[in-house]
């Protein structure tokens, strides 16, 4: 079995790691942990085109975003291996739009399952901000497991 675990360092991602580790998986299961960071250009279009001293800002922001994301992935690998050392784990840190990158990585990995955490946002928030997990579930060519943090109630949303 081939599983893509998409994480962002949140408590919801940690819950997804715990759920994955607890699954009764067949031997030989491969897990690809991915995390996506958005470059300043994606987050704020036009920043680079303004020129001047912003080029250094862009490079520093991109470097810091990548470094933070790599740390998140390293911690996830450590957590998963502690909980289930039988799994074969690889990683990817990718610059882009999370909704698209998760689907592209799953396709390239030939995943049987994608696991993502759900932030449990209400309908208005999902409409305004979009939902990565919802988009992945709607567009993936394989099964998708959306993990909710236990004990969430309406006031947490």
Short description:
It contains six helices and five strands; from the N terminus they run βαβααβαβααβ. It is α/β, with parallel strands linked by helices.
> In sequence order, what are the helices and strands, one letter per element?
EHEHHEHEHHE
Shape, principal axes of CA atoms: globular
**CATH architectural type:** 3-Layer(aba) Sandwich
The fraction of residues assigned to DSSP E strands is 15-25%
Q: How helix-rich are the residues, as a percent range? A: 40-55%
What is the rounded distance between the termini? 33 Å
How many beta-strand elements?
5
Low-confidence stretches: 121-129
The overall pLDDT average reads: 83
Counting DSSP H or I runs of 4 or more residues, the number of helices is 6
Please describe the biggest sheet, giving its number of strands, its sense, and whether it closes into a barrel: 5 strands, parallel
Q: Find the CATH topology.
A: Rossmann fold
Read across the widest sheet, the strand sequence of neighbours is 3-2-1-4-5
- Radius of gyration, in Å, reads 17 Å
Domains (count): 1
Q: Structural class, judged by helices and strands? A: alpha/beta
- Assign the CATH class: Alpha Beta
Can you identify the CATH superfamily? HUPs
How would you explain this protein's 3D organization?
- About 6% of the residues have low confidence.
- The longest helix is centred in the middle third of the chain and has 30 residues.
- The two termini are 33 Å apart.
- The chain has a single domain, classed as 3-Layer(aba) Sandwich (Rossmann fold).
- The chain contains six helices and five strands, in the order βαβααβαβααβ.
- The chain has a five-stranded parallel sheet, sandwiched between helices.
- It is globular and about 50 Å long.
- α1 links the parallel β1 and β2.
- It is α/β, with parallel strands linked by helices.
- Helices cover 46% and strands 22% of the residues.
């Amino acid at each position: 079995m081939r599983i893509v675990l998409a994480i962002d360092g949140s408590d919801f991602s940690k819950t997804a790691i715990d759920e994955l580790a607890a699954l009764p998986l067949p031997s030989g299961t491969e897990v690809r942990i991915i995390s996506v960071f958005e470059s300043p250009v994606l987050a704020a279009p036009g920043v680079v085109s303004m020129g001047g001293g912003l080029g250094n800002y862009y490079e520093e922001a991109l470097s810091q975003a990548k470094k933070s994301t790599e740390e998140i992935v390293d911690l996830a690998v450590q957590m998963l291996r502690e909980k289930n050392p039988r799994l074969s784990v690889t990683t990817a840190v990718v610059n882009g739009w999370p909704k698209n990158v998760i689907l592209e990585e799953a396709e390239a990995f030939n995943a049987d399952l994608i696991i993502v955490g759900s932030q449990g946002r209400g309908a208005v928030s999902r409409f305004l901000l979009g939902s990565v997990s919802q988009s992945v579930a709607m567009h993936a060519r394989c099964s998708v497991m959306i993990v909710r943090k236990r004990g969430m109630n309406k006031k947490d949303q």
